[in-house]
Write a structure and sequence with these properties.
alpha/beta
Amino acid sequence: MEILGIIPARYASTRFPGKPLTDINGKTMIRRVYEQAKASGLTEVIVATDDDRIFSHVQEFGGQAVMTAEHHQSGTDRCFEAYKKLNKPYEFVINIQGDEPFIKPEQIDLVGDCFNRPGTQLATLVKKINSTEELFNTNAPKVVLNNHNEALYFSRQAIPYCRNVPQDIWHKQHTYYKHIGIYGYRADILEQITQLPPSALELAESLEQLRWLENGFKITTALTEFETIGIDSPEDLQKVQHLF
């Protein structure tokens, strides 16, 4: 099974301008993500960017990059343009977040393995929640699964509600899952979801994947034991420097 990995990377960022090019112990963030992706079983890895500086930098360290438009509202839209520009007959595409330098190759392969299941349209990762703090952190989306490990709903709130149970032990009474933001798409499905307008649930929660569910698409999930750490601000970077 041949899978294309795409890393969307914008230069502009309200909280952290130039984030992909920030230095992390001798390597830029985008290079660290790229090298992690290359260590996985992906057939090919490209960076999809809207900035000449990022494009040139990726080429300088020996990576592959594609220039895309500035107007894209999501990484999914940028991935689709890059996929079309590459003009290769990949059946599956994986979107790897450009601000997660700790992503593990095994996690990328877990997403790819989802497409071995018949009928998989979209894929992502989930991780079991083990603390009250994580469960009620609205910056960490939660996901509810059905018996086939498909996503029923994503929310910034802790769902389901555990009736008659103190909130500090909800995670001990029920298995809650955190969403890990890496996405796999069947290529034909990727094209379809980029044609969809923003949905009511998506706008309410500010979670793009709700648009797909609201329009009847199925999202297969795989369970990971590894945490991922997104870098959204210079402060986030300072907190995790010791991990490198």
